[in-house]
Amino acid sequence: MKIEVPGKLYLCGEYAVLKPGSFAIVTPTKRKLWVEAKEGEKGWVSSALFPPVSFSWEKGAFASSVPPECCFSLFAVKLIEGFCRRLTQKSLTLQIEIGSELQEGGKKLGFGSSAAMVCALARAICLLYGAQIKEEEMLKLSILAHFSWQKSGSGGDVAACLLGPVFYSSFDRNWLLKHLSFDAVFKSWPGLFAQKLAFPSSLSSLALWTQHPASTPSLISGIDLPLKFVRRSDELCLRAKEGIEKEDAEALFRAIRSSRYNLESFSRLNQIPLEGRGLRHALKIADSFEICAKTSGAGGGDCALAIGNEEECSKLSESWKRAGFRILSEVLSLKEENE
Question: In total, how many domains does the chain have?
Fold first, then answer.
C-alpha cells in the first residue's frame, strides 16, 4: 500500500494563527511525501534519511531498537498504531518505508515535511488496521501525533496536507496539552476549524528555495502576539478567502501583499529573521514586476512564494534564476482537493 500526501505553503496568517481561533490560509504543494506500508514478519520503519529501525509490540507495550523520543517517524508510528490497535483490537506487524520530494540533498524545503509524514502515516496505518474514522478525526489524530512530538504549532500545515487548500483556525494548545490521549480524537477541540477552498483556475505559482532550512519550533517559541497584529492578520485572511471564493484574483493579491507587510512589522517587533538577505532581494525583484510574493511559513530561511498569472510567474522565474535562486515552478496544488 502506498499513500501520497502533499507538502504545504502558507498564503497568509502565519504566526497569528498560533492564537486559538485565529485564521490562516494554507495550500498543498505538488511535491509530495509518501509512505509504503505492509504487513510482514518483523516490524520496521525506514527512509532515505535513516536505515531501518525495528519495532514491535510486546504484551501491548511498544519496543524498538531506537528510543521513539529520538526519532520522529518512530514516535509517530507508535502513537498512530497505538490508537489503531486500541480502536480495532487488532495486532499487526508493520513494515513502513517513507519517501519524500519535500527535501533536497538532505535539507528541508520548508514544505511541511513533518506534517506530511504524520498525515501519510495516519492514513496508511488506519487503512491497514481497518480503522473507520471520519475525516475530522483523521485530522485530529494527525495533529495529535505532530503536536505530541513538538508541543507547538497551529496544525494548519497538517490540515493542508490532509484536506487540500484550506481556510483554517487553530485549536487551543493549552487545552490539548491537558488532553494528550487517544480520547482527544473524538472530542470537540476549542478553536479548531477547517474549511476547504477552491482557487481560481487561472492562477499560477512558483517558489524559490534559499537552500538554508529554518527551524519552525525555535522561531515560534516564546513570541508575543500583539492583538493589533492578530486582528489585522484575521482581517486579511478573510479578505483573501473572499477573493478566492469570488474568483477575484486582484483582491486575493492585495490581501496577500498586505499580509506580507503586516508580518514584516510583527517580525521587527519580535526580532524574528523573517526575511534574510537572500529573501529580501528576491522579494524586491518580485516587487519590480508588481507580482504578489512573500515569505511562507515561519520564515528565517526556507522559501518565498509568488502567485499570479502564467506570464507573470514565467517572467519572475527567469529573473529569480538569474539571481541564483533554486526555482520550483507551479509549486502549489490549487485546482482540486486531495484524494
Answer: 2
Instruction: For cell 494528550, name the residue.
Output: 180
Same domain, 152 and 14: yes
Q: Is residue 268 part of a domain?
A: yes
What b/e sequence results for 293-332 when a residue is b if at least 16 CB atoms lie within 10 Å of its CB, and e otherwise? Answer: bbbbbbbbbbbbbbbbeeebbeebbebbeeeebebbeebb
Q: Is the pTM of this model over 0.85?
A: yes
* Any domain includes 224: yes
Kindly state whether residues 30 and 176 are assigned to the same domain.
yes
| CA–CA dist 256, 159 (Å, integer) | 20
Please give the DSSP secondary-structure letter assigned to residue 105: T
Residue range 154-188, pLDDT digits in tens: 999 999 999 999 999 999 999 999 999 999 999 99
The answer to whether position 105 is within a domain reads: yes
- Summarize pLDDT for 35-78 with one digit per residue, the tens: 999 999 999 999 988 889 999 999 889 999 999 999 999 999 99
Distance, CA of 192 to CA of 155 (rounded, Å) = 9
Distance (Å, rounded) from C-alpha 323 to C-alpha 10? 24
